[in-house]
Amino acid sequence: TGRPLAGVELAVVRLGLRECCNLILTAGMRGLFLRNQSRSKKVCEALWQHSFLTACLCRRLNATFELGYQGEEFSAGLFHDLGKFRIPLQILNKPARLSEREFAVMQLHSQVGYELLKSWSDLPEDILLGVLHHHERFDGKGYPKQLLADEKDPFSRVLTIVDIYDALTSTRPYKKAMPPHVALKAMFAWRNENFHPGLLERFVECFGVYPPGSLVRLTDQTHALVLAAREHRPDRPLVKVAFTKRLTPQLPQIVDLASCPAAKEGGLDIEACVDPLEHKLDLEKFAV
């Protein structure tokens, strides 16, 4: 309704206990990340953003496919890179490819995060194993334990896909962010080595062929930002038309392509994906 709630009890009833727990955990973890004195503010903000987005994507997958987790997926997303706070800053923030020795140190973060969480509290085993195994691969060439396909727990299989997707679509000191459609193309090229069969396809089913955050050109030559996927039509998402043919800002218009006629019927289709970096566009301000 937009009105403030009268008390904690009513808030729990309205939001649900699980959502309240997520909010409390998010607030606590955000403070832990952003008030860390051993890292620069920029590094802490990047780690926090990646962890929070990973948690949100895990929650969406869990809800869409009814995986049965009761908040563990969100917690694991927030916790999964906690071990990076123990990785030397010169390695974590290196603007170039890591040496073999440096990469071996970076690989320790999942084991370190697991040990930290295990010593802090009595967390569910699913969360602990998710943190420990999120860099294990389907072909057994991941780390830290080089687990074979059947040895990897089901929970971390989901976390692996989400972690890689957000890492690819985020800016790092050593690389630019990939547009979502480019990231998905890369992930499909790696799917036989990295992911349990069928999970990447389910990821696309959930988030669409054009994931939220993608910039697309429509058949009327305007440009739109993808806001949300439509499960029954993954190729026709909800978009915000925000740019003209020449990629200058225009008055935004929300269009649900799943409910819109196709171009051949006088409506709209997506013609192509566009890389915002090539046109020096900052899409964050247009996402709200």
Order of helices and strands: HHHHHHHHHHHEEEEE
Order of strands across the widest beta sheet?
4-3-2-1-5
| Biggest sheet features | 5 strands, antiparallel
- Assign the CATH superfamily of the largest domain: Hypothetical protein af1432
Structural summary, described in words:
The protein is 45% helix and 10% strand. It has 288 residues and is of the alpha+beta class. The chain folds into two domains: 8-207, Hypothetical protein af1432; 215-286, no CATH class. The protein has a five-stranded antiparallel sheet with strand order 4-3-2-1-5, with no helix packed on it. Helix 2 (17-34) packs antiparallel against helix 3 and helix 3 crosses helix 9. The protein is globular and about 60 Å long. 30% of the residues are buried. The model is unreliable at 11-15 (pLDDT under 50).
Question: What attributes does this structure have?
Answer:
single chain; 288 residues; alpha+beta; Hypothetical protein af1432; 2 domains; five-stranded antiparallel beta sheet; 45% helix; globular
Which helices and strands occur, and which strands form pairs?
Blueprint (H helix, E strand, L loop, with lengths): L7 H8 L1 H18 L6 H25 L6 H8 L9 H4 L7 H7 L2 H12 L4 H9 L20 H15 L11 H15 L4 H9 L7 E4 L4 E6 L9 E6 L5 E8 L13 E5 L14
Antiparallel strand pairs: 1-2, 1-5, 2-3, 3-4
